[in-house]
Amino acid sequence: MTGAPDRARAAALLGTRGRHGPLPPLLLVLTVVAGLVDAFSYLVIGHVFVANMTGNVVFLAFSLAGAKGFSVSAGLMALAGFVVGAVLGGRLRGLVGKHRGRFLLWGLVVQAVLVAGALAVAEAVRLPPSGGSRAALVLLLAVAMGGQNAVVAALSVPEARTTVLTTTLTGLAADSRLAGGSDPRALRRLATPVLLFAGALLGAALVVHGHRAVPLQVAAALMLAVVAVLLRLRRSTAPWTRHPG
After folding, report:
1. For 9-53, what is each residue's pLDDT tens digit?
2. Total Cβ atoms within 10 A of residue 228
3. How far apart are the C-alpha atoms of 29 and 245, rounded to whole Å?
4. Residue 185, CA distances (Å) to 6, 12, 43, 176, 243 in order
5. Is the pLDDT reported for residue 214 higher than 60?
6. Of the residues 4, 33, 77, 219, which has the maximum number of CB atoms within 10 A of its CB?
7. Distance CA 15, CA 157 (A)
8. How far is Cα 37 from Cα 135, in angstroms, rounded to an integer?
9. Is the separation of the CB atoms in 212 and 44 below 8 Å?
10. How many beta carbons lie within 10 A of that of residue 225, not counting itself?
């Protein structure tokens, strides 16, 4: 019985109760997905991110300055694909209505199809890829992650952005007790960088040990698990399904 209050406090901190319902933990799963996909893109495709665009802007500057190992074309394709995905994610909200569960569900369905396409390419060619297969992998995954970021941003769940960590870490430190604050969302803020790290670590370990396409397989499996949860919630009329404000 002593564990019940602890579970209730954890649920409150993570936001599984209240106006965001099950969205916070589902978005934390997608944070792991982002780490897995970026591990694959950086280590297998080669020095390019498909989820974290800040790194690509820096890499693009490195490549333009003549640094070795970075590709101008890969960086530009990733940025362009991400923007296209974000536009599509924004348009999707107008198509599926204001139900946040259905919005996330359809966003994930589109993302899963794109990741499945990338996985098919990865399985069909010799890795690391080159030429057209490399371009296809960069574009498919960047569009998928741009869409994910747009959908997550539109859901407006505080401190749950799946890839944007600079603001999260700043808030975690600035609002901490060490800084004189009492951050009520500290656990969720801390969970985001920890789970992104975990996803990247798992993806990197798989690649390093010769399982180059497996990070995409694991990412697809996690997305399908979230889709399965959302399918059960798509007809819910609970308060969390309505966009705040």
Report:
1. 444 444 445 678 999 999 999 999 999 999 999 999 999 999 999
2. 9
3. 25
4. 16, 9, 33, 10, 19
5. yes
6. 33
7. 9
8. 15
9. yes
10. 12
Global pTM? 0.87
What integer pLDDT is reported at residue 11 of this predicted model? Answer: 45
What are the sequence ranges of the domains in the chain? 22-234
Using the predicted structure, report yes or no on whether residue 147 has a pLDDT greater than 90. Answer: yes
Amino acid at 94: G
Spatial separation of the C-alpha atoms in residues 226 and 215, rounded to whole Å: 17
- How far is residue 160's CA from residue 141's CA, in Å, rounded to a whole number? 20
Tokens for 185, please give them. 């969302």
Residue 243 has pLDDT above 60, yes or no: yes
Q: What is the mean pLDDT of residues 178-199?
A: 77
Q: Is the pLDDT of residue 117 over 80?
A: yes
Tokens representing residue 113 in the block: 């199809």
Q: Give the integer Cα–Cα distance in Å for 243 and 192.
A: 22
Kindly indicate whether the domain formed by 22-234 is annotated with CATH number 3.30.450.
no
Q: How many residues does the chain have?
A: 245
The helix/strand/coil state of 95 is: helix
